[in-house]
Amino acid sequence: TIPDQAEEAEEGINWKNFGRVIGATLIASAIFYSICIYSFSTIIKWTEFIKMPIPALAVLKDINIYLSFAMLFIAILGPLGPMNSLFSATSRIILAMGRKKQLPYVFSKLDKRGTPRAANILLAVLTISGPFLGYRMLLPLTEVAGLAFILPCTMVTAACLKFRYDYPELERPYKVPGGKIGIWLGVIIGVILCALLIVPMSPVALDLKEWIILGGWLIFGSILYIISRREKVESR
Asked: What is the pLDDT of residues 21-41, one digit of tens each?
């Protein structure tokens, strides 16, 4: 979400340090979650661990009931930070698509404060409506959202790689660690993650309900794209 919001950065920002922050954040997150997964999964036998619906919470409950209450409180407040950052980043993606005529013109406008109002309103409606859909609907939506998030990131990484080959002379304030090899690794990992969600034999592949949701979302996006194309033709 940090690169998506780079437009709001102050002038004169050190883009090299900006890139380092992104890399350091990803590495720190990977280490933190690896430690958490290892810690919780080794407290009890793995054969018991995998049977629990919410393993970390259940393990803490066996140790101390007060620890489970603390974890439950953290679990409730924890998603607010990522949700806020994703909300802001997604609004910027919609803004960029509006500017490129891939979405209706209204999404390309900024208000007096420099925020994409139309995108924020749309996302606010979707965000507020989400909890009322219930667990059986939210879980498939989460799986579909995972694919919808990973695929664009992979496409952006591939576009970055293409630019490195097509326009090698361009000035680039930020250098990707490892150069083209680092970008290639990003593309390969992105393709693998997408394949895990798409290939039927994968243990985390989308099921029928999730494919239906994805199809409906693609139809909705296609309608918006058609509207934007008509606006583009009429404005000529």
From this structure: 878 888 898 998 898 888 777
Contact in structure between 144 and 214 (CB atoms under 8 Å): yes
Kindly report, residue by residue over 165-217, the tens digit of the pLDDT.
999 888 877 777 788 898 999 999 999 999 999 988 888 888 888 899 889 88
Q: Max CA-CA distance within the chain? A: 68
One-letter amino acid of 172:
R
The residue-averaged pLDDT of 85-95 equals: 83
Assess contact for 176 and 183: CB atoms under 8 A: yes
Q: Quote the CA–CA distance of 208 and 5 in Å, as a whole number.
A: 34
CA dist., res. 182 & res. 176, Å (int): 7
Mean per-residue pLDDT, 152-177: 85
In three state form, how does the secondary structure of 187-207 look?
HHHHHHHHHHHHCCCCCCCCC
Helix H, strand E, coil C: the string for 34-54 is HHHHHHHHCCCCHHHHCCCCC
Quick check: 43 and 63 in contact, CB under 8 A?
A: yes
Vertex 120: Cα angle to 114 and 122 (nearest 5): 145
Q: How far apart are CA 97 and CA 185, in angstroms?
A: 26
Task: Express the helix, strand and coil content of the chain in percent, nearest 5 each.
Answer: 75, 0, 25
